[in-house]
Design goal:
Blueprint (H helix, E strand, L loop, with lengths): L1 E3 L3 H7 L4 E6 L2 H17 L2 E8 L7 H9 L7 E7 L6 H13 L5 E7 L4 H4 L2 H9 L1 E5 L7 H11 L2 E3 L2 H15 L3 H14 L3 E3 L1 H7 L8 H9 L3 H13 L4 H23 L4 H7 L5 H9 L5 H18 L11 H17 L14 H7 L1
Parallel strand pairs: 1-6, 2-5, 2-6, 3-4, 4-5, 7-8
Helix pairs in contact: 1-2, 3-4, 4-6, 7-8, 11-12, 11-13, 12-17, 13-14, 13-16, 13-17, 16-17
């Protein structure tokens, strides 16, 4: 059985399964899921707790198997937690986990903690055994578009809310901008608001004065914001990545890879290939597929050629080369490259023969 993290509370209220697998790379949601299961287990009489951390290839899996079969002298039921930080139990671990799942006891409740797993790991026999024997809970990061609603639900849980209508939405958007990519910090800021102000409606000024700028930005999320044409967010994310010490070359790689992938998909479509095949061949997955579907009709082939040229020039600037039409600072060059792509996906394609993107000097001079 597979559940989302927000479905876990209702599930636990109906009763416990013998095994729970929590996997994902969002620390706050993983911690909360584990806490909820442990609380339900204690209430159901699983008093004794044992924790096994799998570190390296020399973990004693026989000790884990023995602990699950041994009856406790002090409690009728026990809780066993298995932590696999790298998500790779190895050959011996895979076999041991499959044996473990085949001999689950009603007197033992098990929680397996894993990081985010790729598709190949989720198709492994050991994970399949865990999934079939109990409940799998995927803890996924909260996307930026979902963050205001997530914050509103958390405020409601502590008896607080923002104003109705547009002003309240602006307050939530402000909050989301300050904590984007860092749910642990968002949780701390929500707790701070609960301590500072009583239950009821929060004004924008109260939220503004309490919430710190604790956003953590992701290079790959930057690409999504660029393709969505979100200019203000793109500029904010670039400033955040620079302040956090991210390598300019990595930021450039993310932007350039999107540009190259868009060009490859466009060329595949021109050859008559269906869109799903074009995506597979260009290794475009997930949310990027929806974004590409939106922007591909807006991009002419000559525009993509100019964007590839711009990415090449930007790469040279980052590596110390000079270009007469580009700024010397690597982050200013990245800013220009990002804005070039934002412009291209935000407006219809320019007719052939118009000035190429690299030559729209006055506008770019203002933006750089």
């Amino acid at each position: 059985m597979q559940l989302r993290a927000d479905q876990l509370t209702q599930h636990l209220a109906r009763g416990l399964q013998p095994l729970y697998t929590v996997h994902g790379d969002e620390p706050l949601l993983a911690q909360e899921a584990g806490d909820a299961i442990r609380a339900a287990a204690r209430a159901a009489g699983y008093v004794e707790r044992k924790v096994f951390s799998v570190s390296g290839a020399h973990f004693d899996w026989s000790g884990l198997l023995g602990a699950a079969q041994a009856m406790s002298l002090f409690a009728e039921r026990q809780l066993i937690e298995i932590r696999i930080p790298n998500g790779k139990p190895g050959k011996d671990g895979s076999e041991a986990l499959q044996r473990y799942c085949a001999h689950l006891s009603d007197d033992v409740l098990t929680i397996v903690h894993l990081p985010r797993l790729d598709r190949q790991q989720q198709q492994g026999a050991w994970f399949g055994a865990l999934d079939q024997a109990g409940v799998s809970i995927a803890v996924q990061p909260v996307e930026r578009r979902e963050l205001p609603a997530w914050i509103a639900r958390r405020l409601a849980a502590q008896g607080q809310r923002v104003a109705e209508g547009e002003s309240g939405q602006q307050t939530l958007a402000f909050f989301a901008d300050r904590v984007e990519g860092n749910l642990l910090a968002a949780h701390q800021e929500l707790q701070k608001l609960a301590l500072l102000y009583p239950a009821g409606e929060l004004a924008f000024e109260q939220v503004e004065s309490a919430v710190l700028n604790v956003a953590r930005y992701d290079v790959f999320k930057l690409g999504e914001a660029v393709l969505a044409g979100q200019t203000a967010r793109v500029l904010r994310m670039l400033d955040g990545l620079r302040a956090e010490g991210e390598a300019a070359v990595l930021v450039h790689w993310g932007l350039a890879e999107d540009i190259r992938a868009l060009k490859r998909v466009k060329e595949s479509l021109a050859q008559g290939k269906p869109l799903p095949m074009a995506f597979n061949e260009s290794r475009v997955w997930g949310v990027k597929q929806r974004l590409y579907e939106r922007v591909l009709p807006l991009l002419a082939e000559h525009q993509l050629a100019h964007l590839v040229e711009a990415a090449s020039i930007c790469d040279g600037v980052i590596k110390g080369l000079k270009h007469p039409l580009w700024p010397l600072d690597p982050w200013d060059a990245l800013r220009r490259l990002a804005l070039l792509l934002v412009q291209a996906v935000a407006i219809p394609p320019a007719p052939r023969g118009k000035a190429p993107l690299l030559r729209v000097g006055p506008r770019l001079a203002l933006e750089a």
